[in-house]
Amino acid sequence: MKKIKYLGISLLMVFALFSCNDYLDINVDPNNPS
């Protein structure tokens, strides 16, 4: 049961990390107005 809990927490952390990276990369080209 602990393995499933840790697996779920680690997956959530990985998804949060990738979503934060996508969120911070909105303005990739500052010279190109959106």
Molecular structure report:
This protein has one helix and no strands. The chain is rod-shaped and about 50 Å long. The chain has 34 residues and is mostly helical. The longest helix is centred in the middle third of the chain and has 23 residues, at 2-24. The relative contact order is 0.10.
Summary keywords:
single chain, about 35 residues, mainly alpha, 1 helix, about 0% strand
In whole angstroms, how far apart are the ends? Answer: 48 Å
Principal-axes geometry comes out as rod-shaped
Number of contiguous helices: 1
- What structural class should be given to the helix and strand makeup? mainly alpha
Which range best describes the helical content: under 10%, 10-25%, 25-40%, 40-55%, 55-70% or over 70%?
A: 55-70%
Low-confidence stretches: none
**What is the element string, with H for helices and E for strands?**
H
How many individual β-strands?
A: 0
Would you tell me the overall average pLDDT? 77
Outline the biggest β-sheet. Answer: none
Determine Rg (CA atoms, Å). Answer: 16 Å
Q: Beta fraction of the residues?
A: under 5%
